[in-house]
């Protein structure tokens, strides 16, 4: 087991879009931002969004601004690789100047990888991995309509390769959006299940980024890798985002039309994206990847169901950080020891997940006990994510966490 580590070099690093506009009604800026990059834009979104009045209004705004807006409105959940191929075939010769992603995380990731393929050519499989994008991509503008994924600011696109049965990341600083417009009014029409799943996703991003390993990278490592570990600047976003979710998620469950709660949750999701863009997600996301492919359950519910067990696995090497989490969330007894404060923080996260209706164990996600070994083996393929986890995780460790998660065992089995 590794000893607890910290950011000895006092490093801070952020990667972010060139322009971020946040607030209710701010989608009015989109035509102006798009026009800065040309007259022909491609909007990628999903079928639900194309039927909304907000989408019709947006397309009309583009037309009034003299923009030729093409639409790919068939983005599927979890972004199957075939979506990218179809969009490239349909719009490869359309002279697209910029790609706008409108929707949840899959739509935003679709914008990134479509901008890549339209500019660089080839198959998206050519770019699986880190820093394999060999030149500029088309300008990317992201417009999230859910509060959770953080994909509006991140420089990674996650694709589900259906033939291989796995989710794969295309990670490159070249995929960083040139602009993002974050308008909480878009989330008012989100279904309850989607709101809950994305809220759990945002919470998992903030917890994992905050409790990540501190890698203390060299200048060369900072240049060659996107995820350089927990750092001073990512922690700023984590702290603010966690405080916001601590008060907004339960308000949102009580009243889905509470715009103030929607705004706070969306700002927290943005904070999560800013943090994970350099700190990275970790074991909960690595474990969820094969589970998502197996059960086709929403990503946010998968990571949310796993997070309580991963937190307990990581606790022995992150007691001081989890104790700070307890204090941030206002649940730690100020005169208690660090371990008790840490447990209070973990249990508050448990409570927020429960308030969202996140499944309490893997059986509720549809995972069969016989599949746990295979899931553990496939988790080991997510080396980029496991490298961020503060406690090393091998196959046996992964299987132990999965068994606890399957049984709903939330005892502190390694922290006494």
Automatic annotation (TrEMBL):
Protein name: Iron-containing alcohol dehydrogenase
Organism expressing this protein natively: Leucobacter weissii
Residue stretches in coiled coil: none
Keyword Protein transport: no
Keyword Phosphoprotein applies: no
Residues of the signal peptide: none
GO function terms (MF aspect): alcohol dehydrogenase (NAD+) activity; metal ion binding
Limits of the Alcohol dehydrogenase iron-type/glycerol dehydrogenase GldA domain: 17-184
Keywords: NAD, Oxidoreductase
All copies of domain Fe-containing alcohol dehydrogenase-like C-terminal, residue ranges: 195-406
